[in-house]
Design brief:
It is a single chain. The protein has 292 residues and is of the alpha/beta class. The chain folds into three domains: 79 residues, Arc Repressor Mutant, subunit A (Orthogonal Bundle); 87 residues, Periplasmic binding protein-like II (D-Maltodextrin-Binding Protein, domain 2, 3-Layer(aba) Sandwich), CATH 3.40.190.10; 105 residues, D-Maltodextrin-Binding Protein, domain 2 (3-Layer(aba) Sandwich), CATH 3.40.190.290. Helices cover 38% and strands 22% of the residues. Strands 3, 4, 5, 6, 7, 8, 9, 10 and 11 form a nine-stranded mixed beta sheet that branches. Strands 1-2 form a two-stranded antiparallel sheet. Strand 1 and strand 2 form a beta hairpin. Helix 1 packs across helix 4 and helix 2 packs across helix 3. The chain is flat.
Length: 292
């Protein structure tokens, strides 16, 4: 039983879905499936029940989880005890494309990266004061003192619950959104992007009946939209998954866009290396819909 197999096992337990776990790990689903099958063979027991909707852990898997967590944590502490260089501090804004995050994790693996979930506004401060080495953040923003490369860009559409009045549309115009409220994050989270998208919908002639302060984190915005009210969100297509109870509808025209960039301080001694890394990330294939 290898440590890698335990890490893969824990990823499937967390995601309850083979393809999403593979995406988070940065490997192919077929490779992950083979690893899980090999682990089950080593342990001579079934760890998951395979269903149409995902992977359901068995009682044996539940018993294995605390031991797997302890083993992975012990291995991490062992590696940290012999490190001769400080870890790479990386921040990721909530809602960043998961395939880009997985690719960045693989690209920085040799630098013992420490990833944190940090809003764009806070990242800007920490990148400038040296507390962060790299950040995946939303743009446009005031990037004075920072360098950056756009690594992912997607069209925003309208996301509604399956029972919403717009759910049956194949496309929407801005006028169709009247008189809906919009689920939108607070300005300090990403000031520049927040303002840019608001200006876009105002120029398009839409003024939401109200703005609900929502979170860019998936679990929270899914819950907010499913409450039965006339509320919409603006999200990329890949952010809506089967089983969410949500529908993504494209704009017929004049769609806003969401852009993520990899940023670093211009005075960081590894700036040239980060620029190469960012250019490689920008070449990662971007699915229009979230991979299932």
């Amino acid at each position: 039983m290898e440590l890698r197999s335990l890490r893969y096992f824990l990823a499937v337990v967390e995601e309850r879905h083979l393809t999403r776990a593979a995406e988070a790990l940065g490997i192919r689903p077929t490779s992950l499936s083979q690893q899980i099958i090999g682990l089950e063979r080593d342990l001579d027991t079934s760890l998951f029940v395979r269903t149409a909707s995902g992977m359901v852990p068995t009682a044996a898997a539940d018993r294995l989880v605390p031991h797997a967590l302890a083993a992975v944590a012990a291995a991490r502490r062992a590696a940290e005890s012999v490190r001769t260089r400080p870890p790479l501090h990386v921040a990721v804004t909530p809602g960043a494309p998961p395939w880009v995050v997985a690719e960045l994790w693989r690209a920085t693996a040799d630098f013992a990266p420490e990833f944190t979930d940090t809003q764009t506004g806070e990242q800007l401060v920490r990148l400038r004061n040296g507390a962060l080495d790299l950040g995946i953040l939303l743009v446009p923003e005031d990037l004075t003192g920072l360098d950056h490369i756009t690594i992912a860009e997607a069209e925003l559409g309208v996301v509604v619950a399956v029972g919403h009045r717009l759910a049956g549309r194949t496309a929407v115009r801005w006028a169709d959104l009247h008189p809906s409220s919009v689920l939108w994050f607070s300005q300090p989270c990403a000031p520049g992007y927040h303002q840019a998208i608001q200006q876009h919908w105002l120029r398009a002639g839409w003024r939401p009946s109200s703005m609900r302060n929502g979170s860019p984190r998936r679990a929270l915005f899914v819950a907010e939209l499913s409450g039965g009210d006339d509320v919409v969100a603006l999200r990329p297509a890949w952010d809506v998954r089967d089983g969410d109870g949500l529908v993504w509808i494209p704009f017929a025209s004049d769609a806003p866009r969401i852009c993520h960039a990899l940023a670093w301080s211009v005075v960081n001694p590894h700036a040239a290396k980060y620029a190469t890394m960012a250019a490689d990330l920008a070449c990662v294939a971007v699915p229009h819909k979230h991979p299932e």
